[in-house]
Amino acid sequence: MKVNNVHRIECDFKPRLVLLISDIHWDNPKCDRALLKRHLEQAKEKGADILLNGDTFCLMQGAYDPRKSKSDIRPEHNVNNYLDAVVGTAIEYFGPYADLIKVVGYGNHETSILKRAETDVIERFVSGMNIKYGTSIEAGGYGGWVVYEFRDNSRHRATYKIKYFHGSGGGAPVTLGTIQSNRMQVFVEGANMIWQGHVHNDYELTYTVEHLSTINHEIELRDVVHVRTSTYKEEYNKGKGGWHVERGASPKPTGGRWLQLTPTLPHQSTAKVVGYTYKAQ
User: Fold this and answer.
1) How many helices, marked H, and strands, marked E, lie in the chain?
2) Please, what is the angle between helix 108-116 and helix 121-133, to 10°?
3) Cα–Cα 20 to 30 A to 65, which of 16, 73, 172, 182?
4) 261 near 148, Cβ under 8 Å?
5) Where are the domains of the chain?
6) What's the CATH code, domain 2-279?
7) pLDDT digits (tens, 9 = 90+) for 198-230
8) Residues 216, 203: contact at Cβ < 8 Å?
9) pLDDT tens string 146-168
């Protein structure tokens, strides 16, 4: 359920697995669909949730886009109703996983289409999926929150709060985007995890912060996990050439990350959720 750009997911008091994906660039011929399919099938086998954090689509081959190139369009999308074709075929492709997808956020590629072509491809994709498959997928924002709420029969309740933001800035060849992680650590309060994509890098960092408890003002330490998910678009092409190589960019990791959430009862009356990520293989 989404309220004011906060997506709440209620679940039982037991471990929950989530597939974190960003920057699929699904309609680009360079998208590694075999790898994507493998990860989606793994999510289906495990009963995992799927969250998409922007740039699900590439959408650079319209008549409006000066970057368009005939080599960067798939045959089934090389038609007059280009955007319709991309959205329609995506609804078919992601259909087997519709019940697992919880939130689809925006990236700069989707917001560029909204600005240039005056159509909201994320809203069209999400609405089309929900109508065709009877699901309740929610359209997110460029940034927002996903809150997992765990409850058990004894009325224990624990939450895990994910602040997601697609990302900003350039390719971050030296810092890998950690400067943006440092910045968000400063102005985002209360998150258990801060998740970004955009720069096609892959990492998990842990920041530990000190705070006072609300009861008795005890000094406590709390971990904030920073996650960056990469891409499914393989542009390096063994260094042979192309825009990515010619600008001196390095090879990028591909794939998403698994988020393992485990609710625990460290004290009889206190519940908490432990979360960590690892790279999807």
Assistant:
1) 6, 13
2) 100
3) 172
4) yes
5) 2-279
6) 3.60.21
7) 999 999 999 999 989 887 889 989 999 999 999
8) no
9) 999 999 877 778 999 999 999 99
Nearest to 25 by CA among 231, 249, 199, 228: 231
Q: How far is CA 45 from CA 17, 41, 49, 96, in A?
A: 11, 6, 11, 12
Single-letter residue type at 24: I
Q: In this structure, how many other beta carbons lie within 10 angstroms of the beta carbon of residue 9?
A: 19
Instruction: Please say whether the dihedral angle defined by the alpha carbons of residues 54, 201, 188 and 263, taken in this order, is positive or negative.
Output: positive
- The span from the CA of 31 to the CA of 161, in Å, is 30
Residues 265, 234 contacting (CB under 8 angstroms): no
127's tokens? 């609405």
Evaluate if residue 1 carries a pLDDT over 70: no
This prediction's pTM = 0.93
Taking only the tens place, the pLDDT of each residue in 73-102 is 999 999 999 999 999 999 999 999 999 999
Tokens at 105, concatenated: 């956020």
| Short-list 171, 141, 51, CA closest to 101 | 51
